[in-house]
């Protein structure tokens, strides 16, 4: 028996309120989501409104056929620190919003407690060869040049690394597998065997990922710069000033570099760093570093390789 049209009507039900992240930073985008279902026997419209602290923030009109359901989400940005009340479709929840400085302190605390991570890091230095190569002294003629160093691998704190290093300074290019244990540096030679390098690991200390993280902890003039996904992780971006991460012996004076840090909105871990330094003296020299961090606190083992006796 068919139900008369006059007896059919939509009936909406709102459920499964989620707020991501559970704790937000001032100016971060917070995603508020609910499931809306039409449990009635006729299609219809439902005005889904989001209220923040008792005031309507925004709304959407949801049109659903009888028996249909869908998830709707809203982006909410909080500009004041404190506990804020969210209400949507009769569902309610509070969210704590903290300052950028408080969130950054959490990030630094979390990063100080990690035991291991994977990283990919690139360093580019451009300028006069007498400065760029001053720590290696490999060019006699003064030219404007650039070198790049790329490190990628696993780091086990406090001082163990296993991965690859590439060095490129046209026309020079080298690539090698290496293991670092404390100050001991091991390199794999072309025949596949390993040797202990005469160069100690301290030669690479200025570009160690742990050194980069130390510099990040000294950031000054912290500012908010938006949000972006890194490897599928929603990150907040901050910007500030730091002291240069590379010491070039022929340059003197105090220089500030610009740093950007991407930290996870939920995990409060650093996922990407860029640092730019410009030495604008008589011989301009530019330094750029980018590092990406993943796979925190994985169970890894790094031991000295068997060294060839030949």
Q: Main β-sheet, in a few words? A: 11 strands, antiparallel
Number of domains: 2
- H-E string: EEEEEEEEHEHEEEEEHEEEEE
Estimated share of beta-strand residues: over 45%
Look up the CATH topology of the largest domain.
Answer: outer membrane lipoprotein receptor (LolB), chain A
Q: Cα distance, first to last residue?
A: 94 Å
Rg, Å, rounded: 27 Å
Give structural notes:
The protein has 310 residues and is mainly beta. It folds into two domains: 5-98, Immunoglobulin-like (Sandwich), CATH 2.60.40.10; 104-294, outer membrane lipoprotein receptor (LolB), chain A, CATH 2.50.20. Helix content is 8%, strand content 54%. It is built from three helices and 19 strands. It has helices at residues 100-112, 129-132, 209-216; strands at 12-20, 23-25, 29-38, 44-52, 55-64, 69-77, 82-88, 91-98, 116-128, 144-156, 160-169, 172-181, 184-188, 194-196, 220-230, 233-242, 257-264, 270-279, 285-294. It has an eleven-stranded antiparallel beta sheet. 22% of the residues are buried. Residues 130-139 and 246-253 have low confidence and may be disordered.
Topology (SSEs and partners):
Elements: E1 12-20, E2 23-25, E3 29-38, E4 44-52, E5 55-64, E6 69-77, E7 82-88, E8 91-98, H1 100-112, E9 116-128, H2 129-132, E10 144-156, E11 160-169, E12 172-181, E13 184-188, E14 194-196, H3 209-216, E15 220-230, E16 233-242, E17 257-264, E18 270-279, E19 285-294
Parallel strand pairs: 2-8
Antiparallel strand pairs: 1-3, 3-6, 4-5, 4-7, 7-8, 9-10, 9-19, 10-11, 11-12, 12-13, 13-14, 15-16, 16-17, 17-18, 18-19
Write a brief caption for the model:
The chain has helices spanning 100-112, 129-132, 209-216; strands at 12-20, 23-25, 29-38, 44-52, 55-64, 69-77, 82-88, 91-98, 116-128, 144-156, 160-169, 172-181, 184-188, 194-196, 220-230, 233-242, 257-264, 270-279, 285-294. The protein has 310 residues and is mainly beta. Mean pLDDT is 85; it is low at 130-139 and 246-253.
